Amino acid sequence: MTSDHRLTIALGGIGIALTLVAIGWWWLIFGIVVDSGTITYAQAATCLAGTTDLCALAQALCTANHWLGLRAYAPEVFWAGSALLIATLAQLTIRPGLGRGEQP
Question: Where in the sequence is the domain holding 30, given as residue range(s)?
Answer without folding.
Answer: 25-93
